[in-house]
What does this fold into?
Amino acid sequence: MRQPIFTGSAVAIITPFQKGGVDLDTLGSLLDFQLENGTDAIVVCGTTGEASTMTYQERAETIAFCVRHVGGRVPVIAGSGSNSTENAVTLSREAERQGADGLLVVTPYYNKATQAGLLRHYQTIADAVSLPIILYNVPSRTGVSIAPESYAALAEHPNIVGVKEASGNLGNVQRTRNLCPADFTIWSGNDDETVPICALGGKGVISVAANILPAEMHRLTQLCLKNDFAAAGELQVHLKDFCDAMFCEVNPIPVKTALSLLGWRAGELRSPMCPPSAENLEHIKAVLAKYGLPVI
It folds into this structure.
């Protein structure tokens, strides 16, 4: 039986940019905040980390820094996806070389690969590395969704250990559970679906909200893992407005804005990302106040 890379709450951590580069000092402080508040794994250079706007060198250096700073206290999972299979292999090998514990590999975006193309893409990457790979299904951003039958085929590869499921299709999650072996792990890719996916056998969440509420997201997943779904459901409902606010504009615009409002040096958004509208800025401020988070 393959063991999950992690169970509980992994933060999809932001990348703080300052003056055109990665602000590693602030990243270190953000990592400390996560570790002090119970986060179970770090996902670096993912969507929330704006990896698609980073150079290969920046990604390698940021992954290496996270690995050194975390020092084995929790797993570090590196985003290494691309819409080019060859580039994804290169990124995945580099992440392995830098010491990552696992890889998060998003479906190829823009290309809109067929299911056969997805199988070839992921199997090629998995053959090229020895690290455990988490598939990342987020059709709202990539234009393609992995079918449950494709999960079943990919689960046969020893390096493909599970999926971050952000399709919003709970029916497909159930079908995936029926088709895949028990050691193929499902993690929620949407904060507000953490409890439903865990109730269907999931093992936690890869979370945007945890950038700001790491202790709460950790507690939410621990309640699920203890099968206390009554209490978990109450907490999920309580967190709903906050989770929604973090997606009032395209991720990571709201979460980086919120961190900056709370006094963190979250830094600039890389183009084509831009600051939120005036209306959404006020909405983010109001939600922070609702949850007792003081704006500085």
